[in-house]
Amino acid sequence: MNNQSSPSPETVYHLAKETNSPQADHLNIIGVSFDGTACFRKGTSAGPTAIRQVSVDLETYSPYLKMDLSEIDQFYDLGDLAPNANEDVDKQWQAIRDNFSSLIASNNETIRFLALGGEHSISYIFIKRCLEIHPDMVLLHLDAHADLRDGYQGYHYSHAAVIRRCLDHFGTNHHLAQFGIRSGTKEEYNWMTANKTLYSDLPKFLGFLEKIPRDRPIYLTLDLDYFDPAFLPGTGTPEAGGEDFRSFIEIVEILKNKKLVGADVVELAPNIDPTGNSEVFAAKVVRELILAFHGEDGHVR
Ligand SMILES: [Mn+2]
Question: What is the pTM of this model?
Answer without folding.
Answer: 0.95
